[in-house]
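Spend some time on this chain, C-alpha cells included, and walk me through the fold:

. . .
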Amino acid sequence: MHRIFASDSAAAPGDSHEQVVLCHDRDSGLKAVIAIHSTALGPALGGTRFHPYASEEEAVQDALNLARGMSYKNALAGLDLGGGKAVIIGDPAHATEGGAKSEALLRAYGRFVQSLGGRYITACDVGTYVADMDVVARECDFVTGRSPEYGGAGDSSVLTAFGVFQAMRACARHRWGAPTLAGRRVGVAGVGKVGHHLVGHLVEDGAQVVVTDVRADAVARVRAAHPGVEVVADAGALVRANLDVYAPCALGGALDDDTVAALTATVVCGAANNQLAHPGVEKDLADRGVLYAPDYLVNAGGVIQVADEIGGFVFERAKAKAARIYDTTLEIFARAQADGVPPAVAADRLAERRMADIGRLRSIHLPGGRRG
C-alpha cells in the first residue's frame, strides 16, 4: 500500500481528503484506490466500485468525488460515520482479463482494507455484490453489506430504493401538495440494482413509469414484472419525454448543461451519486423552476442499511431509519426556501454543520484513548 495523498483532518469539511491510497497486487491483478474524505463523525464508510477506468488518474478522481459525497451522505443521514470510497480498476464481467474479479483479487483487496485498521469500512457499490463482500471479509474485519447467512444485511439496494421513493414522496408533497406519485409520469434512467426496486414502489403507488437502460436484460426484467411500464431508447429520449419527475439511477454526471436545458420534468429525484456534472447546475435547475432533491440525501437508504449491520442488523430498524429520509427531504426544502438558496446548498450546509459540530468534540480528551 502506498499513500499518495494526505491532508490535515482539521481542515474545513469538504475542503480536502484525509487520506488516499493506491493498492497494487501484481499476481492477482489488483489495482485499487481507497479514498478517506473525513473521519470527523467516525470511521469512513462507503462502498467499493469495480469499473474499467481508462486510467489510474480517472480512478483516483472518481474515488475522491465519491468519498466526499459519502461524508455528506452519512452526516445528513444522522450516522456516526465518516465518508470514504474505494474503486477497483478492471472489468468485473470478464474473468479471463487482467484486473478482473476473482477470489484472489478480492481477498488481496480485503487485506489492503484491513491494513487501514478500521479507518475505512467497505460495502457494495456498482460492479460489486453481496457475494463479493463475503469474499473480501475472509481477509478483513471491516466489511458490511454481507449476505444474511453471515449475519449481514444482504442487498442494500432494497433500502436505497425505498429511501429514494420516500424522498420522491416528499418532493410530491412540496411541489403538488400530496405525498404520492399517483397519476404522475416518472422517468427512471437506469433500472439495475436500485432502479428496478424503485419502479416497483412507483407502480404500486399508481405512477405512470417510463424507463431506459443500456442493458436490454435489465429492461426486460422490469417489463416482465411490470408490463405496463413504457420504454424509451436512451437517457436523452427520456429527458425529453413528457415527465413530471426525472429519476437518474445510473452513473454520475447525469445533470449537465444540455440535460438541464432539455428537461421537461419539474422534479428531479434519483438514486445516482454525484448527479450534478459541475458546480452551478443546482442553480440552473432552480432558475428553471425544477425542484432538485440532493442525491446524497435521496440515496442514503443503502448506507443506512449497511451501517445498521455494524451493530447487528435488524431490517425493521434500518427501514424505519430510511423512512426518515421523507422528513429530512422536507426539512431541506424548507431551509432552502427560508435561506433563498437551492436545496443542494441547504443540504451541504446542514451536513457541514453536523461534521463541524460533532467533529469538534474530538478535541475533548477522553482517558484510555476511547473514541479517538
Summary: Confidence is low (pLDDT under 50) at residues 1-12.
